């Protein structure tokens, strides 16, 4: 019998075709992904992927095995969900944590709404706070799962499921030179004053999100508050461009005073669902929601164009 964990690793790699991205998605290390794949290949007796220094592709055997692996995974998931559903028909609470902005992210909204349509007996309780705070409460057992933005810092104790991805954009006042460009390259940002969130979003997140600006030689200007309304007011008053991440289908940044241009090279922020690897108690409700996220995450990987924000 093939280990389902190995099957899930194979399916993720067949979609991503990148050991690095699969490791990030599964919350593990690249050597661990390679080890799991080798174990599966040893069990099957043939190689599933061609590996070179430049790319990863499925072998002919891997392509044939893919359909069977997907059936195995789907059957196991359906059996697990049915078992959980039969075991627990009573009303259940789902304790979630989330940063405030994520209430406007389309993919988070759709994930929760679809889950509640399928399981109307579940009552969600959503605690709103910055990512670092909800992560602390998760580790202390106060929350079942959280939505958070990457990076999280050390997360060997966590499992991560992709929910959505935002891409970096410059919002420029109509009269600003950057507003006349179709895309804004890093060289265009040299010596430009650009309004950003303050460091109170967290040192790790601050440097990860805005590293491109510093490397380009821009002059980041920190807004006084880590809130979109504050960022916009501050930039409007000074007629300065804004650097912000736009989520798929994002309309919350719409304004007549600014035009939005994608930044090249692209830079991203991921919204993920997070749970403890070894929680004190894992309820059927928690597992059902996690599996719902995993299915959406698979669709995310299959159709990345659907996750591209409007230009």
Please, could you describe this protein's structure?
The protein is α/β, with parallel strands linked by helices and 311 residues long. Among the domains are: 1-87, Orthogonal Bundle (Arc Repressor Mutant, subunit A); 165-268, Periplasmic binding protein-like II (D-Maltodextrin-Binding Protein, domain 2). It is built from 9 helices and 12 strands. Helix 1 (4-16) crosses helix 3, helix 1 packs across helix 4 (60-87) and helix 4 (60-87) packs antiparallel against helix 9. The longest helix has 28 residues, at 60-87. It is globular, with a radius of gyration of 21 Å.
List the helices and strands and how they pair.
Blueprint: H1 4-16, H2 19-26, H3 30-44, E1 49-51, E2 56-58, H4 60-87, E3 92-98, H5 106-118, E4 122-128, H6 131-139, E5 145-149, E6 158-173, E7 184-185, E8 193-196, H7 203-216, E9 219-222, H8 228-238, E10 242-246, E11 258-264, E12 268-276, H9 284-302
Parallel strand pairs: 3-4, 3-5, 7-11, 8-9
Antiparallel strand pairs: 1-2, 5-12, 6-10, 6-11, 6-12
Keywords:
Arc Repressor Mutant, subunit A, disordered C terminus, 311 residues, alpha/beta, two-stranded antiparallel sheet, D-Maltodextrin-Binding Protein, domain 2, 9 helices, single chain
Summarize the structure.
By secondary structure, the chain is of the alpha/beta class. 42% of the residues lie in helices and 23% in strands.
**What is the C-level CATH assignment of the domain at 165-268?**
Alpha Beta
How far is the N terminus from the C terminus?
48 Å
> In CATH terms, what is the fold-level topology of the domain at 165-268?
D-Maltodextrin-Binding Protein, domain 2
Low-confidence stretches: 301-311
CATH superfamily of the domain at 165-268: Periplasmic binding protein-like II
Query: By helix and strand content, what is the structural category?
Result: alpha/beta
Query: Main β-sheet: number of strands, strand sense, barrel status?
Result: 8 strands, mixed
* N-to-C series of helices and strands: HHHEEHEHEHEEEEHEHEEEH
**Percent range of helical residues:** 40-55%
Q: Roughly what is the average pLDDT, rounded to an integer?
A: 85
Number of helices: 9
């Amino acid at each position: 019998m093939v280990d389902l964990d190995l099957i899930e690793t194979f399916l993720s790699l067949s979609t991503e075709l990148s050991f690095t991205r699969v490791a990030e998605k599964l919350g593990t290390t690249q050597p661990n992904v390679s080890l799991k794949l080798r174990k599966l290949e040893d069990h099957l007796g043939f190689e599933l992927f061609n590996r070179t220094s430049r790319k990863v592709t499925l072998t002919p055997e891997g392509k044939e095995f893919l359909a069977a692996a997907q059936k195995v995974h789907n059957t196991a998931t359906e059996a697990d969900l049915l078992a959980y559903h039969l075991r627990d028909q009573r009303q259940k609470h789902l304790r979630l944590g989330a940063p405030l902005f994520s209430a406007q992210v389309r993919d988070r909204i759709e994930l929760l709404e679809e889950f509640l349509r399928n399981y109307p007996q579940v009552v969600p309780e959503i605690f709103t706070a910055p990512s670092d705070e909800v992560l602390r409460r998760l580790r202390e057992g106060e929350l079942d799962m959280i939505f958070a933005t990457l990076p999280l810092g050390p997360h060997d104790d966590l499992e991560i499921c992709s929910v959505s991805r935002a891409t970096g954009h410059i919002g420029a006042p109509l009269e600003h030179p950057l507003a006349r460009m179709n895309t804004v390259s890093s060289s265009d940002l040299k010596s430009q004053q650009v309004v950003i969130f303050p460091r109170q979003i967290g040192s790790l997140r601050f440097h990860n999100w805005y590293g491109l600006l510093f490397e380009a030689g821009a002059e980041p200007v920190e807004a006084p508050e880590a809130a979109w309304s504050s960022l916009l007011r501050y930039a409007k008053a000074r007629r300065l461009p804004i650097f912000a991440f736009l989520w798929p289908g994002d309309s919350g940044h719409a304004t007549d005073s600014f035009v939005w241009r994608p930044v090249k090279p692209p830079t991203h922020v991921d919204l993920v669902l997070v749970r403890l690897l070894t929680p004190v108690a894992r309820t059927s409700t928690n597992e059902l929601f996690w599996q719902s996220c995993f299915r959406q995450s698979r669709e995310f990987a299959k159709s990345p164009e659907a996750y591209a924000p409007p230009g």
